[in-house]
Amino acid sequence: TVGIRVKIIGELPRPEDGPYVFTPNHRNFLDILLMYFVARGPFHFMAKAELARVPLFGILFSKTHIPFNRSSPSEASLAFRRGLGEIKNGMSLVVFPEATQNPRSDGLLPFKEGAFKLAEEAGVPVVGVYFENNLERLPHSRDLFRWPGRGGPGEVRIRIMPPVSGPAEFTRQHVRSTMEGWL
To answer: Is 59 exposed, middle or buried (0-12, 13-18, 19+ CB in 10 A)?
Structure first.
């Protein structure tokens, strides 16, 4: 590790009880790495297709995860169907419902509904994941060199919600209101 200590608050879901759709908040790139502490069974990230164009990372991402193009309804539909297929094969999915990094630590961006619709249609629970203080360990990329004294080694706190099932709108509101309570 690079001086990052992980503190899990809540109970990690058991891989044998999955699959799940994990819906973490998204502050910075550290969130992606920390999901490997949370989603302990097999999983794929489902994220914007633009990530496939990132040098080196893009090759791995496009081959092992599910990219989708939000601006193309037909490509988004294909990604949704691929996600359903992966869940049916026992694979969990990680979908950031804010749909982009949110550099603010005092709020959440609006939640897109796709992850919650995917969970509802697949009949699997949603597990909300809240990265409480990732910006303290790694400032957002646009602020990396403007935040003196910020970043570096220390503890990150990850809050885990119990799995929740139900209609997409219910799970979306439940996850969001729980996370807002943790702000």
So the answer is: exposed
Q: How far, in Å, CA of 53 to CA of 2, rounded? A: 27
The band of 137, judged by pLDDT with boundaries at 50, 70 and 90, is: confident
Give the Cα separation of 4 and 164 in Å (integer).
Answer: 29
Torsion from C-alpha of 88, 90, 96, 99, nearest 10 degrees: -30
Condensed to tens digits (0 to 9), the pLDDT of residues 64-92 reads 667 777 788 888 888 889 899 999 999 99
CA distance 103 to 107: 9
Within its chain, how far is the Cα of 12 from the centroid? 15
Nearest C-alpha neighbor of 136 from the set 149, 123, 119? 149
